[in-house]
Amino acid sequence: MSVIEEERVRGGVFKDINPEDEDQQPTVIESLCMNCYENGSTRLLFTKIPFFKEIIISSFTCPHCNWTNTEIQSAGRIQEQGVLYTLQVKTKEDMNREVVKSDSASTRIPQLDFEIPAFTQKGSLSTIEGLLDRAVAGLEQDQPIRKVCVLSVTV
Ligand SMILES: [Zn+2]
Q1: What is the dotted CATH code of the domain comprising 1-77?
Q2: How far is the CA of 149 from the centre of ligand 1 (A)?
């Protein structure tokens, strides 16, 4: 498929994100809740963030246990070159800055020598604080099991 044809195909599905556009309704599919294994629903929205790229937003909600999960997947081609964005967090409000982070992006906080490597978090639309919360939750996951392992080694 040539580039022009591909653009035409993509243009049909991916439109600039616009809450006013009535045609931009999410596709809803019934899917299994990974928390309680009852049926919930996944809403898929194919959209395009201006000056960014085509993305698929999937939002899962379960009416049985109220579990929710929102993910963003990049639908565009992987860029040939990466981009470096630097944000100086100077005030508490800066923690509320919205960020779209793809799964192939890595996040670094040089002052803390802390890095969230690429492909360790799923893509998300979040805030700086949200990204850090996710990293903390990821690090805390399975900690009791790890502690048991350390104990069994030292005993
Ligand atoms: Zn559930």
Answers
A1: 2.20.25.420
A2: 31
State the distance from the centre of ligand 1 to the C-alpha of 121, rounded, in angstroms: 22
Superfamily of domain 80-155: ZPR1, A/B domain (2.60.120.1040)
pLDDT in tens, 98-140: 888 878 888 999 988 999 888 888 887 788 998 888 888 888 8
User: What mean pLDDT comes out for the span 52-70?
Assistant: 87
Q: What is the DSSP string of 72-115?
A: EEE-SPPPSS---------SGGGGG-EEEE-TT--EEEGGGTEE
User: pLDDT (tens digit, 9 = 90+) per residue, 76-88?
Assistant: 776 777 888 898 9
Residue 142's pLDDT is 75
Spacing, Cα 116 to ligand 1 middle (Å): 29
Q: Distance from the CA of 141 to the center of ligand 1, in angstroms? A: 20
Which of 20, 142, 131, 3 has its CA nearest to residue 72? 131
